[in-house]
Design goal:
The chain is an alpha+beta fold and about 230 residues long. It folds into 2 domains: about 90 residues, Arc Repressor Mutant, subunit A, CATH 1.10.10.10; about 110 residues, Nonspecific Lipid-transfer Protein, Chain A. About 40% of the residues lie in helices and about 15% in strands. It contains 12 helices and 7 strands. Strands 5-4-3-6-7 form a 5-stranded mixed beta sheet. Strand 1 and strand 2 form a beta hairpin. The termini are far apart.
């Protein structure tokens, strides 16, 4: 049974659920767990603006509420955070919020919140290696307008995808140059690779097959297929 955490003082099940879920960052932490993150440092990469102290606090609160549990991971001192049955039952709610945001939150407002580290981390875990050549592929991203965090490398080898912020030392198969806003809009499904290349906002240099199939293998937002709607 979930422990009461205080808040609205109402017996309504919606109010009680809000007491668990509506604290700052809680739903975003759950989003990361549904995306496959189980360890503290993995979660931190998905919430780069959240302090480690606050992340620890939210994880403890979710554990106290019975939404997640701490488990011993592989290796000495390694802790995994796993969703309980109660936590798994939240998946449709958390994903439903994302669908609503994709449909109804005005696109330009979304594109004010740009973060290259989060974008590349999301692309890394959603990338589909199946359309790519059956060899190690290295894709370099360059965001020329940034003064730091300008370059990233995705290394895809036998289905495994690694994200590097330091040159991994491999030959690059595809260079992608564009501003962060454009790449974020592509990731969100607000535009396409082809449209941005034709508009001159995205430049692709290198392997022809990788360039041709980029829209297919690129790791898009899980909500990218949802079309924008206009509120009355």
């Amino acid at each position: 049974m979930m422990k009461k955490v205080g808040g609205y003082g109402q017996f309504c099940p919606l109010a009680m659920a809000a007491e668990v879920l509506c604290t700052r960052w809680t739903v975003i932490v759950l989003r990361e767990m549904f995306a496959g993150s189980t360890r503290f440092n993995e979660l931190r990469r998905g919430v780069p603006l959240m302090s480690p102290t606050l992340l620890s606090k939210r994880l403890k609160e979710l554990e106290n509420c019975g939404v997640i549990e701490r488990m011993k991971g592989e290796g000495s001192g390694v802790i995994d955070y796993r969703l309980t049955a109660a936590g798994q039952d939240l998946q449709s709610i958390v994903l439903g919020l994302g669908v609503w945001g994709q449909r109804w939150v005005e696109a330009q407002s979304s594109l004010k919140n740009l973060d290259p580290s989060l974008l590349m981390w999301d692309m890394r875990r959603n990338l589909d290696p199946r359309p790519m050549p059956h060899k190690r592929c290295v894709v370099q991203f360059l965001y020329p307008e940034l003064t730091s965090k300008r370059r990233y490398w995705l290394v895809i080898d036998r289905g495994a995808v690694d994200l590097c912020q330091v040159d991994p030392g491999f030959e690059v198969d595809l260079y992608i140059v564009g501003d962060l806003r454009t790449m974020t809009a592509v990731w969100m499904g607000l535009t396409t690779v082809r449209a941005e290349v034709q508009a001159g906002r995205l430049k692709l240099t290198g392997n022809s097959d990788l360039k041709r199939s980029m829209q297919t293998w690129l790791g898009l937002s899980p909500f990218a297929k949802e079309k924008k709607r206009v509120a009355a």
